[in-house]
Design brief:
Helix content is 69%, strand content 0%. With 236 residues, the protein is an all-alpha fold. Helix 1 crosses helix 7, helix 2 crosses helix 6 and helix 5 packs antiparallel against helix 6. The N and C termini lie far apart (40 Å).
Length: 236
């Protein structure tokens, strides 16, 4: 249960900190943190929780990461569903908290016809810069694959584990710097689910992509690392 609670709170912090920065701090005139600030916020949430609770649960905070680690032999398949449920519940509670805070602003309203509504992910008309479905899918697939390669490499027995959280957090920051204009960056189905449900409308209909592409990308990244990269390391 401690592992599940760690995943719950870690995912809560990721959504509350990352999506919260997008909702509250990104667009303030002359003072807003912009895309770069939101990207850094997401990276910092994972970095801080990796060191805070990573030793308890492994610090996944992401269903795609859990799937990738299971495929890569770093995580037992029997624990996969409980982890994913805990992550999604943590994300939903964070989205609810963000919504309740937002209600305190007189002008608050969610326009789910516009890109980035309540920090949700989208493609086509809901992409921040108008990227089509195929572009969104490919970006989410590739970026999640590399995220898994970073995670597996940084946490390998031959790596310096003290710096794993830093590498993973910076990796997620880079991923957001690349893809916020494309999809508002998912690479995390729990994060996408919580915000899509709160935003509603077409965001819910597009949610399938933000489960399918990250999970397939995570599987690909795990297979690439396990059968190409790590074997090469052993051979040397």
């Amino acid at each position: 249960m401690k592992k599940l609670f760690a995943e719950f709170f870690g995912t809560f912090w990721l959504v509350f900190g990352g999506c919260g920065s997008a909702i509250f701090a990104a667009g303030i005139p002359n003072l807003g943190i912009g895309f770069a600030g939101v990207a850094l916020a997401f990276g910092l949430t994972v970095l801080t929780m990796a060191y805070a609770v990573g030793s308890i649960s492994g610090g996944h905070f992401n269903p795609a990461v859990s799937v990738g680690l299971a495929v890569g032999g770093r995580f037992p398949m029997k624990d996969l569903i409980p982890y994913i449920v805990s992550q999604c519940l943590g994300a939903m509670l964070a989205a609810t908290a963000l919504y309740m805070i937002s209600l305190g602003h007189a002008d608050f309203a969610i326009d789910n016809t516009k890109p980035g509504a309540f920090a949700a992910n989208g493609y086509g008309a809901l992409s921040p810069n108008g990227y089509a479905l195929a572009s969104a899918f490919l970006a989410e697939f590739i970026l999640t694959a590399f995220f898994l390669i970073i995670i597996l490499g940084a946490t390998a027995p031959t790596s310096n584990g003290k710096f794993a959280g830093l590498a993973i957090g910076l990796g997620l920051t880079l991923i957001h710097l690349i893809s916020i204009p494309i999809t508002n960056t998912s690479v995390n189905p729990a994060r996408s689910t919580s915000q899509a449900i709160m935003a509603g409308g077409e965001y819910v209909n597009q949610l399938w992509l933000f489960w399918t592409a990250p999970i397939l990308g995570a599987i690909a990244g795990a297979l690439i690392y396990t059968y190409l990269i790590s074997k090469r390391e052993t051979a040397q």
